[in-house]
Amino acid sequence: MSAPLTYLHRCCQRSVLLVVARRQWSTNSASPPPLHRRLLLFLTQRFYDVEMLLGWRYQAQRSQLQKKNVYYSYTQRFYGPDIASAYYILSLKGGFRYVGQSEWFRTNQRGKFSWDFLNHKNTPIEEADMSYTIINYTGLENLERQRSLRTLKLKGCPEVDDWFLARLHLFQDSLEELDISHCPRITTGGLAALRNLKGLKHLNVSSLPGISNPGLVIILLEEMLPQCQITANGYDHNLRKVEEEEEEQMQRQR
Question: InterPro entries under this entry (predicted)?
């Protein structure tokens, strides 16, 4: 049974139980139930109503997320992979720049965009800005054929997680700049997958709430990617502080 039907079934069962309980009170007692019982019944009804609405809202959000990140096979079949990738980026209200072009294609505040990107049918994408969009692991498939992608900005993307980072190996031969700052679902384990991006020159890992011991993580990243400039702002535990603590521990052991 699907999740929406499950919520509906549960709510119907609870409604029946509440009706039965109300009938028992009305038939078995001449006087109305005490105030605290009536209050309890009222709160119970409201709780189940709110639970049902929240459940439906969650399912609607997940359905919308899956719909937005579906593979654009139809567009790719008729217009090619470059147009399909461009259309996917714009549909998520992102922006991009083609190879050899200075113009950026972006959506406006109302989510509208120019269709002039269709004039670049066989031109790959060099830079993509997906900051604050709902791109996820599944949607990344729409970009996998962009082997000239040099810059990918994912700042503040709520669906970018460790699995997403593991899939970035598709761009290991081209990607030079990556911004994954302010992504709440990234953990220390996911950052280890970035070791495959040997050509990376700039990496922004600022303000990742899922990172424990950020100072040590930065040290590991610098060892994995020695040629990469790492930006890590928004942490109390900076690299210098970690080094000072290590020196203090060594002195104590002596």
Answer: LRR_dom_sf
Cβ proximity of 174 and 144 under 8 Å: no
How do residues 95-104 score in pLDDT, each as one tens digit?
999 999 999 9
User: Which candidate, 247, 165, 162, places its Cα nearest to that of 203?
Assistant: 165
Q: Residues 6 or more apart from 93 whose CB is under 8 A from it?
A: 107, 111, 133
| Tens-digit pLDDT profile for residues 58-94 | 677 777 788 889 989 889 999 999 999 999 999 999 9
Which tokens sit at 163? 């699995």
Angle between helix 214-224 and 239-253 (nearest 10):
100
Q: Where along the chain do the CATH 3.80.10.10 domains lie?
A: 150-253
Structural contact between residues 126 and 98, judged by C-beta atoms closer than 8 angstroms: yes
The one-letter amino acid at 170 = L
Helix, coil or strand: residue 54: helix
| Residue 200 · residue 222 · CB < 8 Å | no
Alpha carbon distance 150, 146 (integer Å): 9
